[in-house]
Amino acid sequence: MWIIAGFILTWMSVEMSYAERGYMALGGEWLALPMVLMAVEVARDISELIRYLLDMEGDDV
């Protein structure tokens, strides 16, 4: 699901940037897919960390 969302965002940003420039060039618009995938991975890691920390809260040290 996230890969499809990243492809759609990449496609939209590439079309918009080409229309703005008026010519084809490589730019940051091609980073939309990797950024989506990285954001998903970071969100998953943060949620795991929060669950781990909340689990530790009940432990007596």
Task: Give the SSE layout.
Blueprint: H1 2-21, H2 32-57
Helix pairs in contact: 1-2
Explained architecture:
Helix content is 75%, strand content 0%. The chain has two helices and no strands.
* Proportion in β-strands: under 5%
Biggest sheet overview? none
Helices and strands: which structural class? mainly alpha
Number of strands: 0
Rg, nearest Å: 19 Å
Oligomer kind:
single chain
The low-pLDDT segments are none
Q: Portion of residues in helices? A: over 70%
From the N-terminal CA to the C-terminal CA, the straight-line distance is 41 Å
Counted by DSSP, the helix tally is 2
Order of helices and strands: HH
Envelope shape: rod-shaped
- Average pLDDT level: 87
Descriptors for this entry?
75% helix; 61 residues; mainly alpha
Short characterization:
75% of the residues lie in helices and 0% in strands. The protein has 61 residues and is an all-alpha fold.
